Amino acid sequence: MICRRTDLYGLRVASPHFESRPEHMPLPALLARTGAAVGRFRHGVTAGHGLTTTSLAGLGVLAHAGGLSHRELAAELGVTPATLTPVVDTLEREGSLRRERDPADRRVVRLRITDAGRRRLATAHEQVEVVYRERLPHLTAEEEAVVRRYLLAVLDAVDEDGA
């Protein structure tokens, strides 16, 4: 059933865009709702480890990429440098990363994951993955490939930053 709404002229119009039941939503609306729900779920799971989704992702990027500048890490995570600042401050205060001057250019500060940060990342990542495997639907390799292609195509179509 399509939810009926009143337009600007007081006429009753049918629009699936206002449908509140997921099984009747247009795919873009369902995708947005699902993305928001997965984001809330991820937030709750990572918060159980004293991390945010951004801090967990930041530690992961630093573990693989080595020393990045604040701006480079923000770009990798798809956030603004201003958004990243309190995350980096907290991770540094907790001993998970450190700031170092770049010897080649003393104006640049590099962010590096510490050994404690690597241990924290490994533990949190492993436990987060367990929760995901328990809660999220299991897909065959073929199903996952179809979903992945679709999501990448959506991301390519709407991501103006090219992330």
**Number of extended strands:** 5
Mean of all residue-level pLDDT scores: 87
Any low-confidence stretches, pLDDT <50, length ≥5?
none
Inertia-based shape:
globular
CATH topology of the domain at 47-158: Arc Repressor Mutant, subunit A
What is the top-level CATH class of the domain at 47-158? Answer: Mainly Alpha
- How many DSSP helices? 6
Helix content: 55-70%
CATH superfamily of the domain at 47-158: Winged helix-like DNA-binding domain superfamily/Winged helix DNA-binding domain
| Order of strands across the main sheet | 3-5-4
Work out the strand percent: 5-15%
Largest sheet: 3 strands, antiparallel
What is the SS-derived class? alpha+beta
**Measured on Cα atoms, how large is the radius of gyration?**
21 Å
Give the N-to-C terminal Cα separation.
37 Å
Based on the coordinates given, report the CATH architecture of the domain at 47-158.
Orthogonal Bundle
H/E element string?
EEHHEHHEEHH
